[in-house]
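Weekly structure sync - notes
Attendees: PM, LS, DV (DV joined late)
Agenda: review two folding runs queued last week.

Item 1: First target. Sequence and structure tokens pasted below for the record.
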Amino acid sequence: MTLTPEEDGLLKLDGELGFATVEAIWEALLEQEQKQVKLDLSKVHRIDSAGVATLVAFMAHAKEQGIEVKMTGASSQLLSMARVSGVDTMLPLSWK
């Protein structure tokens, strides 16, 4: 999993967002200093419950820091997992 910062607060995630990768991604997310962040999830090939929990935790952190977050490119797997987990209303997700 890689997180690539782009212009204007755009962050591109690429790979699998899961138990084995969330620690490194979490650290990279916490380093963000932009007041508006857009997470591009279109290249996330697989996500597990640890990945969903990381996104939820980042939303809580962002709220505390006054950071506005949008998430684009969510796969049907991510949307389904968020619904099943009951966190779909907590994540600002949009479809691919």
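Item 2: Second target, run right after the first with the same settings.
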Amino acid sequence: MRWAAQVTALLMVLMFGVFLGIDTAEQNIQKIQGNEGAPRAVHITPENGRVEISVMGHVVETENPVSQENVQRVNQVKHSVQQNSGILAKMGNEMGSGIRQGARKAIEVIVGWLDSNDKNR
């Protein structure tokens, strides 16, 4: 249990360091280029139930929640993508799904350990 807590804490600290490093690097790049205060690489602005996301100057607007899901259209697009994708894409998607499921299971186990230890105290 102690080992799992240490690994989890280490991963959290490393992720925080990565995000802090990216932010610091972006600020320093802006200072060097002389355009301090310019829009960030990723800028998120929520307004009146809509979210505007600007990534490297490209603006994407979303509306939340989606008014209605067209299940037939989703299945049609999914079938089209499956027919047009190659074997490497399929293998990559299956590997990604497996990694995602494994990570979720690992998190469930770790949280289960933490919950069981809290109840024992």
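Discussion on item 2: The mean pLDDT is 78.
Action: LS to circulate a short write-up before next sync.
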